[in-house]
Amino acid sequence: MRPSDYFGSSPAGPGPGAAELIAAEVRGVPPDEVPVRLCRLAPRLLPVSGASASLRGESVPVRLCASGERASRLAEIQATLGDGPCVSAIAARAPVLASDLSSGADANRWPVFAQQATAVGVQAVYALPLGSDTVCVGTLDLYRDTPGGLTRGQLGTARLVAGVLTLALMALPREEDGWLSGLSGDHDEVYQAVGMIMAQLGIGADEALARLRADAFARGRTAHAVARDVLTHRRRFDSDVP
Q: At what angle do helices 111-119 and 69-81 cross, to 10 degrees?
């Protein structure tokens, strides 16, 4: 199978030598190690400063891997806000390229995310869906510390990275479920906390998740961190009700 079998054809091919570098990086590597290898390789192939990959969650993207601390932080910001290029790419099942988060249409499209991203030095984000033309299982997110877009060739390289990453995810055998258990654990904690907030306030799931996200944003924390506080009874939402 080829990356394009899962990702669709691209009008622009990858940059010279990109396929060879990707092949060399993942040759002989177990599928569960491929995502982090590709996240670390992306800044060498493209004019980006970092990369992360997230799996699609019911309402909260689940970070799979990141090239560094800042890329990890950007993935968590999008998960906490439920907004940003990653979320938009999942909904559209198409690449979302935000070339300037400091001004213009991109800043206006995701105003809170744009403010948070630029505050940590990220000026552009390129989110590419993982999966096929009809099924999206997550995103590859590329971060850049200066404004600017991708050329057709660079977009082709980014698509190739996303395609190989998709193949690695599809190649995980059933017995590799233990590798994913830590990721689903974070996701499950959020929904367990949502259930507790629903019980505390007598509200629906959507409003409870919105309350959790708003609390995380107001406190400068991640949704996962606040969820753990709820589960360990360090944070109760009914105490906020007059």
A: 160
DSSP bridge partners of 97: 126
pLDDT digits (tens, 9 = 90+) for 182-225: 444 555 677 677 767 877 888 766 677 778 878 887 887 777 78
Sign of torsion over alpha carbons 82, 223, 108, 146: negative
Q: Looking at residue 134, what is its pLDDT?
A: 72
Domains present along the chain, CATH in parentheses: 3-172 (3.30.450.40), 176-240 (1.10.10.10)
Q: For the whole model, what pTM was predicted?
A: 0.72
Question: What type of residue sits at position 99?
Answer: S
Q: How far is Cα 14 from Cα 5, in angstroms, rounded to an integer?
A: 16
d(CA 175, CA 182): 14
Structure tokens that stand for 232 in this block: 């360990």
**β-bridge mates for residue 96, sequence order:** 127
Copy the structure tokens of residue 219. 């406190």
**Sequence letter at residue 65:** C
